[in-house]
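Our consortium's second objective concerns turning raw sequence data into structural hypotheses that experimental partners can test. To show how far this objective has progressed, the report includes one record in full. It was chosen at random from the queue rather than selected for favorable results. The single chain below, 358 residues long, was entered without modification.
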Amino acid sequence: MRIMTLPCDGIGPEIMAATLEVMEAVNAKFDLGLTFHEEESGFTSLKNHGITLREEVLDRARTEFDGVILGTQSHMDYPPVAQGGRNVSAGFRIGLDLYANVRPARSRDFLPNKAPGMDLVIMREATEGFYPDRNMFRGVGEMMPDPDMALSVRKITRHSSTRICREAFKLAMQRGKKVTAIHKANSFLMTDGLFLECFREVARDFPEVQIEDKIVDAFAALLVRQPEKYDVVVATNFYGDILSDLASELSGSLGLAGSINANAETGLVCAQAQHGSAPDIAGKNVANPTSLILSAAMMLSWLGEQRGIDKLMAAGAAIHAAVDKVIDDPAKRTRDIGGTVNTDAFGRMVADQIAASA
């Protein structure tokens, strides 16, 4: 099984190295037969190839690899698209049609957190919405008719809304059988109205699942007040992006938040940390690699479920268990969760825990 890795920018190379140490540990433990192949992206690719993400890299990911692990990108610092500054993350999501951005948030009793009992998954649609680099066939969905006016176009389609809702209901059937749809249909009558219509249509195929819908601003408040009440949350791109960061930070740290981008129809999947590239700490060996480590674990579990390979699912579960075992010890935590452990040392601890586990 071939895995493409792209360290990308900022802390990306450091957290990628720690993640690969963990992946090699499960590779050996479960005899997975994984091989890892690095590709350039971000500023390295811009320097060497004149663009942050080459189309040939996407083509190879689509046709030659079983999964992708993508590091963090410094998109805000890229030059304009015309000068090679392509959004790497969006490039994968649009180029490979990875419409389902799966973002779990789980509080741990042994870690300080602001959301006791929270264990939810946000299913975020990732290929359209308010994001101007992915809602037009040509060009982008933002424009300035004059220097004092800026406009942005939002795209919501029945196709994309239906398929993310269906994935949310399928996941809920494996969990607590409850799905909450997030919207602002009181203001966005047509766009969020269409999303809600699709949500209710899909719900008819899952009569066992309890459904509700919440206005996005009210849900943000409820997530703080009663996080334990939610199971699977489905949202359009923009809402899901913001709410998943909120949920992860409430659970203890954005650095603990795993994430995958996937397409159940094509079988393509990309593991990606929820957080950014943190250029202020890049190269200092102090970043928490947990988010990317857990993202890689989610990728293995997803591939195992899609392909019916039990040992892939076991390997994903083993990584989650090893991370929890390590951070249960305050002396083994990284700085963002109150410890002093460095990036590389944390990866080694998780890998060692996997190797030592029964």
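The partners drew two points from this record. The two ends are 24 Å apart (CA to CA). The domain at 1-107+254-358 is CATH 3.40.718.10 (Isopropylmalate Dehydrogenase). Both points have been shared with the crystallography group to help prioritize constructs.
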